[in-house]
Amino acid sequence: MTIDPELNKQYAPSVWSHRYAADVVVQKHIEVTGKASEETKTKVPCQLDVPYGSSEGQRADIFGGDSLPKGAPILVYIHGGYWQALNRQISSYCVQPLYNAGVRVVVLGYDLAPAVKLGDIVEEINSSGKFILELAEKYSSKEIILVGHCAGATLILTLLTSKWFRSLPVEKQKLFTSVVLISGLYDLAPLVYTKHNAALQLTQEEISSHSPLHHLDLLPTVTMESLHFLAVLAEHDSPEFCKQTETLLKALKEKGSKKNELLVVNGVDHFDEVEKLEDENYSLTRRITKLFKSNI
Hints:
By secondary structure, this protein is an alpha/beta fold. It has one domain (5-291): Alpha/Beta hydrolase fold, catalytic domain (Rossmann fold, 3-Layer(aba) Sandwich), CATH 3.40.50.1820. It contains 13 helices and eight strands. Strand 1 (46-51) and strand 2 (59-63) form a beta hairpin. Helix 4 crosses helix 5 (151-160). The protein is globular, with a radius of gyration of 18 Å. Residues 65-164 form the BD-FAE-like domain. It holds the Pfam family BD-FAE. InterPro entries: AB_hydrolase_fold (IPR029058), BD-FAE-like_dom (IPR049492), GDXG_lipolytic_enzyme (IPR050300). Keywords: Hydrolase. This is BD-FAE-like domain-containing protein.
């Protein structure tokens, strides 16, 4: 496919940063998140490189473990990077404030394109669901919140519409109380005309299969009635990213979602929108913490 210059710009978050030049902001992001993640690992009790599947990328870092009481809620974080960049090793920057609030945090990794196809990544995250529920049972947790950034937000919705999730007993489905979708991608069709598709090599079948907007009808009834959808945008996200989120929220409402919310975070771009999650006073950190119904 030929690259469309305008779509390529719209889906290049680095171009929209007001802090750094486009060729600098991603490297700065890696530096900031890497440093914060390394500091977290020295301050918060953790189990690193815990396998949840058989492939090299199917590993999780678990923070809190036995240092928190039984019944403490769980937050699962899935990083972005267009399914081809970043990793869990630099994605634990969100942990410290949540741990301080009494939340166990699981940072999920996954294999990246072009070594694997998007469908493989979707299946990997779907397989993590069993692992997450086993952790919840181990720690007697009654509440799980899923948080994903960019491509990670897409993977949250593909998990919730998966055959595995739909086959769960209602009481298991209800353990998932909220999802936080941070500047996500919900219709993958435009990506075919961007530089990102060089690694992804998306087919029309894959676009249809893995675009959450095409499959909202598969969300279980209890999910539509009780799950809180918090969709987040950065003030300096591109118009196309904003359109994707607005379209998702509209579709959720039309299909019967009872709890959905849009939060636009002022003064941030696509990158420091999540970098700032290391700060307990950051507006998005506070909003996520308040989602927990448990007495934390």
